[in-house]
Request: fold
Amino acid sequence: MANPKQWKAPRSRPRRESNMSIASFNAGCRSFAAALALALAAGCNFAPKYTVPPVASPPAYKETNDWKTAEPSDAVIKGNWWTMFNDPQLNALESQVVVSNQNIAAALENFLAARAVAKQARSQFFPTVSADPSFTKAQASSNGGSAGAASGSGGKIYSAYALPLDASWEPDLWGSIRNTFAASTFSAQASAAQLENMRLTIQAELAVDFFQLRAQDELIELYSNTIANYRDSLALTTTLFETGIDSDLDVAQADSLLETTLAQATALGIQRAQYEHAIALLMGQPASMFSLKPAPRAYSAPSVPLGLPAQLLERRPDIAAAERAVAEANASIGVARAAYYPTFSLTGGTGLQSSTMSTLLKSSSFYWAAGVAASEVIFDAGKRKAVTEQARANYRASAANYRQTVLTAFQQVEDNIAALRILSLESAQQDVAVRASQKNLGLAIERYRLGINSYLNVITAQVSLLNNQQTAVAIHMQQMTSSAQLVMALGGGWSAGDLPSPRRVLRKNVTP
Reply:
């Protein structure tokens, strides 16, 4: 046995080592927390850097050929573009169609649904917290085995009260959540552009149907005047026949022409009714409850400002929708690539648990738990690679669709410019033809009265005049419809600046 005087209490070195271990552990925790915070702040993003797919833009529209459709001071189409046609009835219809048209209403709801999807994606940035309060009352079996026998609780009735609160969170270390949110936001922007494109399409379709209906009114008025003239001609031939100057053949020819023209005039009502019904459908009204009174033509095709071809990329909502779809596909690549890396989740729980209600709210009933979990796919037989390849292919397809949309826009503008340019020449030529036909008819009637020519020459002149007048009406109608279609091809009064930003997309009361 050692001498007590020689024995000394051991130094507290192990305790300092323990304190140092704890300090090192705490420092490590702080370092890990700092690194985790830095990772969460910086985060990786595996989506390729996005740029708008390049598309060749011509310096000027080819079909103008020095033909100007607007003064330089009118370089931009205004928002209410239909007012340039100076028709109060059309203005009233256009102001109502955006409210009552069901296709526009459906497009609006599609945008709201897309916005809700973006909000769902945004929620993944935050922890999920859930509460699951419960109360259980049960009786253990006396014959339940050794556990019940050992505890002596067999046959007894017991209660359990719980007020748990659980939370879980997945840090976005690889940008999967960010890219999912970005993709859904871009999709919502594309939906907003599609809504604007639907509005523009319906507005232009309404204008086209309206001009076609007014062309039918003009034709009906033309036929009404022509029928009155044919009645006068029939009366003239009848009088000449009764006085013995003319034959009954001329009377029969005049009567036949009158009856044929009456039948043609009656048929005009079919197309007018159909155009009226088409407008009712656009207005979101039953066809049987909608009507438009006939009105004569009192306006001509307006001058439409063209701008530069490069500006078309900023003025067409369908181009904006296609471009946003490309951005969405680009973000989806980042989501697919992030699947190669492990996911981490932080979980925690706290609450109160007791067998009696009286002790449930005491501090002794409190409990808590916390944990970290990681997950990584070791083998998936090439699934993630295939998903990434699919995302890249979808991006290339979206880029091709965008370029095709731009090229189609250029084509539509050029088509309508060419139509208006050629129709303006054709209209002037047709007006000359109408005046020539009127002069020819006057000479034919005069020579018939003098007995120089037969009535067949009068009929030929009458038919020629009516055909030329019909052609003139058709040309004017094409000018009006081509003007409306050109405005649509140019994007109406819309601009890419009107597209809601990603921040505004998520606001509750913001709609395009």
